[in-house]
Amino acid sequence: MAQQRNRVRIIAGKYRRRLLPFPDVDGLRPTPDRVRETVFNWLADRVENADCLDLFAGSGAMGFEAASRGARKVVLVEKSRTALQCLRDSKALLAASEVQLHSGAAEDYLARSAERFDLIFLDPPYALNLLPALLPKVGRMLKAGGCIYIESDRPEQFAGWQVLKEGKAGAVRFALLVAGSSE
């Protein structure tokens, strides 16, 4: 099934095949179906009953996919009011009680939250090159044995992190990281 314009499809789980709208917001680019399918295949044994954080939620594709696949809690953080309203609408459409929405900048959420997560989705706007600065901050929110999904448009260095899996689809580079040496 092809992705429709300004709609993202939930691939598997209880919300499978549902199409969720997302707005035209500068820099918002949902993770492609092919990449999400690969990543969630990698995460198959980690998602159920996990506490998840989608720090730059945008369309909510990663967070709603995690919720669909049995995550206990999914926190979506989004600063765009327009995108946040679409996330609210999608949460209501799915009756996704496991999804919590937080309005505001990712950096503000990191500064004020003491929550810890099993899975963190970190997909900031590519042009801002935020991954190097955010990884240490996000790392303190990771539960023991947890992992971080990162997405970028360029090769990244992961000092202090071990790459479990990585891939590339077109211009999108993505990886799963766990705490530990990058060597």
Please tally the helical runs, counting DSSP H or I stretches of 4 or more residues: 5
- Share in helix: 25-40%
Strand content: 25-35%
Helix/strand/pairing category = alpha/beta
Radius of gyration: 15 Å
Largest sheet: 7 strands, mixed
Shape: globular
Straight-line N-to-C gap: 40 Å
Number of strands: 9
Look at the structure and give the mean pLDDT. 88
Strand order of the largest sheet: 5-4-3-6-7-9-8
The ordered string of helix (H) and strand (E) elements is EEHEHEHEHEHEEE
Unreliable parts: none
Protein model, in words:
The protein is of the alpha/beta class. Helix content is 26%, strand content 30%. It is built from five helices and nine strands. The strands form two sheets. The chain has a seven-stranded mixed sheet with strand order 5-4-3-6-7-9-8, with helices on both faces. A two-stranded antiparallel sheet has the order 1-2. It starts with 6 loop residues before the first strand and ends with a strand. 38% of the residues are buried. It comes from Vogesella alkaliphila. This is Ribosomal RNA small subunit methyltransferase D. It holds the Pfam family Cons_hypoth95. InterPro entries: DNA_methylase_N6_adenine_CS, RNA_MeTrfase_RsmD, SAM-dependent_MTases_sf.
Task: Describe the SSE topology.
Layout: E1 7-9, E2 19-21, H1 33-42, E3 51-54, H2 61-68, E4 73-78, H3 81-94, E5 99-103, H4 106-112, E6 117-122, H5 131-139, E7 142-152, E8 161-169, E9 172-179
Parallel strand pairs: 3-4, 3-6, 4-5, 6-7
Antiparallel strand pairs: 1-2, 7-9, 8-9
